Amino acid sequence: MQLTFTSSARLAALASLVVLSACDKKKNGADPAAPILYGMSWTVDGQSISNSAGYTISNGMLVLTSVVKASNGIDASTLTITVPAATGTYDLGVAVPGKSYTASYQTYLSGVGTTYVANNITRTGAGSVTVSTLGTEDIVGSFEFTGLAGSGSSATSKALTNGKFSIRRM
Length: 170
What we know:
- The protein is mostly beta strands and 170 residues long.
- The protein folds into two domains: 1-34, no CATH class; 39-168.
- Helix content is 12%, strand content 52%.
- It is built from one helix and eleven strands, in the order H-E-E-E-E-E-E-E-E-E-E-E.
- A six-stranded antiparallel sheet has the order 2-1-11-10-9-6, with no helix packed on it. A five-stranded antiparallel sheet has the order 3-4-5-7-8, with no helix packed on it.
């Protein structure tokens, strides 16, 4: 017995293979269509932000920076994270002798600048930064923190959540 496929049967078979292949890739956690993010992303004041970022490594410290300029050309915000240049999780609320971990979010809106800081030395604010990859090609990790501006009862806070960074090293 010889099987003969019509063109519609061939298309149906091909479509089945494509669907099965896509399901297999998702099952294994690899989605080749997913975009690769290079930069930093976070949520602040209910707004998701994604932007390019840069880094420096000096004296054993990794400094990540992202500057977001508003469409009006005047307002801006700067996110800066400083942690050891090593993989690990760094608690911004726990003092570690001789170690300084800092995350700051500076806003410049309508001519007024405000800096919200989380720092383990002064125990200002709280949060953590995780550097999961510090390779020769990529720096990858996550963060969340609540920074404080001012001190005492007049201090205000700003929470940054869902923070991620993926930076291509040059």
